[in-house]
Design brief:
Helices cover about 70% and strands about 5% of the residues. It is mostly helical. Strands 1-2 form a two-stranded antiparallel ribbon. Helix 1 (about 1-30) packs antiparallel against helix 8 (about 185-205). It is globular and about 60 Å long.
Amino acid sequence: MIPQLLFTGLGIGSIYALVALGFVLIYRATNVVNFAQGDFSMIGAFIMVVLAIDLGVPYWIAVIVAVVTMAAFGILFNYGVYYPLRHRTFLPVVISTIGASILLQNGVLAAYGPHPQSLPPMLPFPGFTVGGVFLDSQYLLILVVTFALVALQYLFFERTMLGKKLQATSQDKEMASLLGIPVALMIGITFAYSAVLGGVAGILVAPLLFVSINMGSTIALKAFAASIIGGFGDVTGAIVGGLALGVVETFGAAYISVPYKDGFAFLVLFLFLMVRPQGVFGEKVAEKA
């Protein structure tokens, strides 16, 4: 029972981790919280519905096209929502991301209506049993893709010049600009990658959930809580926080209450804000007046 719940929890937590990672990357690059990050998941899932269901594009080709489309969407989002307000204070940019979220949800609502859509499983077999634990193929795929993305991201940031430029931009935009790094381009790439992370999360979770305009909001709330628990602004914290939150939610639903499973994430968040507000990997920052 416990190993089965742990496997399921890690699968759900991986979705939260991917979206939380998008939150953190954009925050580090722009010092702004993108409250439309969850809607990237919704858009990615609906792109899959259009391609695979409506147009009949072969499933894995549809996945590739959807991921590329999400990268382009992230660049458009950057230049349409963030870039015009890049020299303004924190609040106007945050409000613009909230407005973009509302616009995206209502745009999809106008195009598809309120009825949820569905996607078939991505793998042709339901799963297999190992040591009494049923490894559902979709959850297994989510775990494999998540850990592969995390590993590739680590190699990209640590082993490539572009990755180091992105890190320099996230640490100090002014200094990066003085060193000749094209800051605007680096931020655009960050938005594109964050949109891909959100889109991949939506595509992976779509066969487990109905594809609806509200799916992004639900995922985003959990992912935002996970990023705070892990230590907002910390990449490792986003991943660990997402995985931990998925496990806590799954065990809470199994042993306490299914109807209130969404509340466990925010209960954990409340406890962290009371006991360790900087999160697991966060550090206290002292300011003198």
